[in-house]
Design goal:
heterodimer, A: 870 residues, six-stranded antiparallel sheet, five-stranded antiparallel sheet, B: 95 residues, alpha/beta, 4 helices, globular
């Protein structure tokens, strides 16, 4: 390391150790100055005493004292600069030192006074007085010590070598200066740190002295209170802070909790009281007032405080958001929710009135849904105006709605665009802000809040309030959905409740899940609840016929749904009601049965009418047939009388034919009535069609011979038996065969053929007759229809035969049709399903003896009629 | 051969004469044919006499009842000629 470098480092060290000379705070400086001035005046006063006591003349003594007093006077002048006063004080004190040395005749120990004064000067922490003092010492020793050593030194060695002694004094004063400077420096550094800490603190910090005056205040304290730090110092804190209670009234100064710290030595903490700034505006504050205790005595206090309005604002915003969430969760309707949200926002954020507008109607205008005003905030004109106002694109709500962005008006009185300006002015409403009620990108409406104060826009509030808008938007959407659902439900409920038909849901184990009032009435119960509670086994309790429910479920299982399932049900009162059920099985996605549901009609009345009709048909049949059978038998007897003239015999035969035709017509009408009403009892058996056909041919043998037809029966191989009712099938074969015989000119050829066709047996009769005109073919199976060319051949036909054939075949799950050309003969076909072998029964079975009896005894007609069900 | 004008008379005649065959109508004054049949079949003396029902009524329940009560046969009058009736009766008497 070079010498230069060493020197540089040394200088650097020295520079660091030297004070910067940062000026002291005024108050500190003043206090120190006061002490120094007091010392100085003490010197001025003591100087003549010392002068006289040391044997100096009174004139000299008072002259020197006058010099010191003059300097002290200058130093004491208020309104002069600090440097001048400090310099004067320094000059006065070191002058006093010099005078003391002179008065004492160079008494060496008097020099110690210099040292004390130089040290005292460092209290100013100012280079000017300090250097002045040093300079005076040096100059005094150098000049006076050389010119008049006896006035400076009082011993021979010093008198002989004044420069050596000046050097010795200089060395000691230098050392003292160095020590003083280091102390000064430390003091300065500590103060610098202290100030740094104070100013870095975000909280306001004020030091209070024992008298209750501010002795220091940091920058934050100045910023919050609106005073400068200098203005704060010396003030009473209660006055400087404008301290008052949160609900408004100021604290009495004697009872100000902050002052308890230095008055009573009690620490105080509060969050929520208010300070008023110099400009009159107030803010909520949290403060800690801590007593400063020095050696057991309260020496003052430190007050820390912070402006919590931001924290309050965030808290209030958050609380308001929570309140909105709660309000929405607790509200059943949009209107109720709107009222609670407005109250939550208004009360939470401190706004006096508000309204919710929703875009509504085909014109798409904003309509006021709900108006709110804080309790005690009477805004009658404004409320009235809002309730009836709509907006399109104007006004604050209109602007918010159009832009989808929140908006703020500091003072509505200045806003010409607000349609309600008149009413708000009358109600003294000024500031207003609005924000959109959103659902995704869609603006559903606007919420606007009003205040009696003029308020500057709060961007943070506007930003945060958007989430409230979305929340309200979702709420409205949800409520609208619920409302739509409720209405739909009400509609279906109405249909369900007021349906004429009974509607039900039942379980597989025979209980009712749901029943409508009509169903309950149908079964004689007062309410659906009574019905569902009473029925635990529908199959046993409800159906009059055991096994009916099982049949119902079986068909549901096989077919998935059942229509017009007619049963006899037990009425609660004990009577029987006829019901017709249509139902389906309801299954989940996996196909598992959930329940059955369907409708029930009361068909008791219909059944009664059917019964009456049946009785009527039966009655008419009997009433017609009885005289006809009389006529028939009497004519038969008449024809057997001896001696009937040939002509009369012929007339009797014609009459018998007419009677037979009339009987046949009655029988056919009866058959048709029964078949159409579905009341024919079908006894399904296995029928050998070839045998049946031979039997019919035997019966009509007379007719065949009469008309000289050639008839043959062709059976293709082994033809299986068909499933059918023997009497009904016989009727079909008879009708088709006799038609062929009748409508084929005498000597014709009739072929009846039988063959198996997949799972049916096809029966056909082919004739060489007159054929069927094309225009008649489509109507041939209609009731009472007779083709034109038929009437010319046979006037006896009723037009019912083919219709009856069709009814029977279709009833037996078969099909009937024909092929024909007019003049070219006709072939009639019908099919019947092959009997399943497991269902075969002997043909001679029959459950009813009267049937077989009748079959064997009389013509087919009679057998058929007797077997019918009425 | 004995004839009767109503059910009561017919029943008395049947008991008195013990005929070989009874032809019975269903719709009759005083006592219906089914009741007559029931009475005939309930009586030891008349039970073996075959009864042939002759009627223009053909209600299914009547037909079923007739079968159940054990009538020998059932015929619809209008569908029957006297000749056929004669053949049937002589067949039954002969059998």
């Amino acid at each position: 390391m070079t010498a230069t470098a060493v020197a540089e480092r040394l200088l650097d060290r020295i520079r660091v150790a030297l004070p910067e000379g940062r000026p002291l705070p005024d108050d500190v400086w003043r206090r120190r100055h006061r002490v120094i001035i007091a010392v100085l005046w003490l010197h001025a006063a003591a100087m003549p005493v010392v002068g006289l006591a040391t044997g100096n003349t009174a004139g000299h003594s008072f002259f020197e004292a006058g010099i010191v007093a003059s300097i002290a006077f200058v130093a004491s002048l208020p309104g002069r600069g600090r440097k001048l006063r400090a310099a004067a004080a320094a000059l006065g004190l070191v002058t006093s030192s010099g005078l003391l040395v002179h008065f004492s005749g160079g008494y060496i120990e008097a020099h110690f006074h210099f040292f004390v004064m130089v040290a005292l000067m460092t209290l100013y922490q100012d280079w000017v007085p300090f250097l002045l003092a040093i300079g005076f010492v040096v100059a005094h020793h150098a000049v006076v010590g050389t010119l008049d050593p006896a006035s400076v030194y009082n011993h021979p060695a010093a008198l002989a070598h004044p420069w050596v002694w000046a050097g010795i004094h200089a060395a000691f004063i230098t050392a003292l200066s160095a020590v003083c400077l280091v102390c000064w420096r430390f003091n300065e550094q500590l103060r610098a740190r202290f100030e740094l800490i104070l100013d870095a603190a975000g909280e306001g910090i004020c030091g209070i002295d024992r008298e209750g005056r501010v002795i220091f205040a940091n920058a934050a304290a100045a910023r919050m209170t609106g005073w400068t730090a200098g203005e704060l110092i010396g003030r009473r804190p209660h006055e400087a802070f404008g301290h008052f209670q949160p609900d408004g009234p100021p604290h009495a100064e004697a009872a100000c909790p902050i002052e308890d710290a230095w008055r009573a030595g009690l620490a105080r903490h509060s969050a929520g009281e208010m300070f008023r700034r110099k400009d009159g505006r107030s803010f909520p504050v949290e403060y800690v007032s801590t007593p400063a205790v020095d050696r057991g005595q309260v020496a003052g206090a430190v007050v820390l405080f912070s402006d919590i309005s931001e924290r309050r604002r965030i808290d209030r915003l958050r609380d308001a958001q929570h309140a909105v969430t709660r309000a929405l969760a607790d509200s059943a309707t949009i209107e109720e929710g709107a009222g609670r949200v407005l109250a939550a926002l208004g009360e939470g954020l401190g706004w006096e009135a508000g309204g919710l507008w929703l875009a509504d109607g085909p014109q798409r205008v904003l309509c006021c849904v709900r108006m709110w005003a804080a309790s005690g905030a009477a805004v009658p004109d404004f409320a009235e105006a809002l309730q009836h106002s709509t907006f399109t694109g104007i006004g604050l709500p209109g602007r918010v709605w159009a832009s989808g962005e929140p908006a703020w008006v500091a003072d509505l009185a200045q806003d010409r665009d607000f349609p309600g300006a008149g009413s708000t002015a009358r109600d003294s409403l000024h500031a207003s802000f609005g924000f959109p009620v959103r659902l995704g990108g869609q603006v559903l409406g606007v919420i606007e809040l009003f205040s009696r104060e003029v308020r500057e826009p709060d961007a943070e509030l506007l930003g945060a309030i958007l989430s409230v808008g979305s929340q309200v938007g979702q709420f409205i959407e949800r409520k609208r959905g619920e409302e739509a659902l409720r209405q739909a439900e009400a509609t279906y409920r109405d249909i369900f409740d007021h349906a004429v038909e009974g509607i039900f849901q039942t379980t597989a184990d025979g209980r009712f899940l749901k029943a409508n009032p009509a169903l309950a009435r149908l079964y004689g119960y007062d309410s659906p609840e009574e019905l569902t509670a009473s029925m635990t086994d529908i199959g046993r309790q409800l159906y009059a016929d055991p096994g009916r429910r099982d049949e119902f479920l079986r068909r549901l299982e096989v077919e998935g749904s059942v229509t017009d399932f007619e049963s006899r049900a037990r009425h609660k009162g004990g009577s029987i009601v006829w019901i017709s059920e249509s139902s389906r099985a309801v299954r989940d996605a996996a196909g598992a049965l959930l329940h059955y549901e369907g409708t029930v009609r009361d068909i008791t009345e219909r059944k009664r009418v059917e019964e009456m009709k049946s009785d009527f048909v039966s009655f008419v049949t009997h009433q017609l047939r009885t005289p006809l059978s009389g006529v028939k038998w009497l004519l038969e007897l008449a024809a057997q009388q001896d001696g009937v003239p040939a002509e009369a015999g012929s007339l009797i035969e014609d009459a018998r034919g007419s009677a037979d035709r009339l009987i046949r017509l009655v029988n056919e009408l009866l058959d048709i009535a029964r078949l159409e009403s579905g009341k024919v009892r079908i006894d399904l058996t296995a029928i050998a069609l070839d045998e049946l056909t031979r039997g019919v041919l035997d019966d009509v043998g007379g007719l065949i011979r009469e008309r000289a037809h050639g008839v043959c029966l062709e059976v293709a191989g082994e033809v299986p038996p068909v499933s059918g009712d023997a009497q009904l099938v016989r009727q079909v074969v008879l009708n088709l065969t006799s038609n062929a015989l009748k409508y084929t000119p005498p000597g014709g050829r009739i072929t009846i053929s039988l063959r198996q066709d997949a799972d049916v047996v096809r029966w056909a009769v082919q004739d060489s007759g007159i054929g069927i005109p094309a225009d008649a073919q489509s109507r041939l199976f209609e009731k009472f229809y007779r083709a034109d060319n038929v009437t010319s051949v046979d006037t006896e036909g009723t037009g019912l035969g083919l219709y009856l054939v069709r009814l029977i075949v279709e009833r037996l799950d078969g099909r009937v049709w024909f092929e024909s050309a007019e003049g070219g003969g006709t072939t009639f076909f019908f099919t019947l399903p092959i009997a399943r072998s497991d269902k075969w029964e002997p043909t001679e079975h029959t459950s009813l003896s009267s049937r077989t009896t009748a079959t064997s005894g009389g013509p087919a007609r009679q057998a058929f009629a007797s077997a019918d069900t009425e | 051969m004995t004839t009767a004008a109503d059910g009561v008379e017919g029943l008395q005649a049947a008991r008195a004469a013990a005929p070989d065959l009874i032809l019975l109508d269903l719709l009759m004054p005083k006592l219906g044919g089914l009741d007559v049949l029931r009475a005939l079949k309930a009586d030891e003396r008349t039970r073996p006499i075959p009864v042939l029902i002759l009627s223009n009524s053909s209600r299914q329940q009547d037909v079923d009842e007739i079968g159940r009560l054990g009538a020998a046969g059932y015929m619809v009058k209008a569908n029957l000629s006297l000749q056929e009736l004669g053949e049937r009766v002589s067949g039954m008497l002969g059998g």
